[in-house]
Specification:
The chain has helices spanning 2-10, 14-37, 40-48. The chain is mainly α. It has one domain (2-48). The N and C termini lie far apart (44 Å). The mean pLDDT is 91.
Length: 52
């Protein structure tokens, strides 16, 4: 939905907007894959906290 809002504001073609957003989406997918295959990445910080 944000893509269409940006398109309405800038009047740029949707393909151009999608090409600009593609690197961000790829990084998000890479981060998700890392956390899925190595869950210890997401659990490291909570594991360092001391529970009472």
């Amino acid at each position: 939905m944000n893509l269409f809002a940006i398109k309405a504001i800038t009047r740029a073609p949707i393909a151009e907007i999608m090409m600009g957003v593609a690197p961000c989406v790829l990084l998000l997918i890479l981060g998700l894959a890392l956390v899925m295959f190595f869950p210890s990445i997401a659990l490291w910080l909570p594991g360092t906290m001391q529970y009472r």
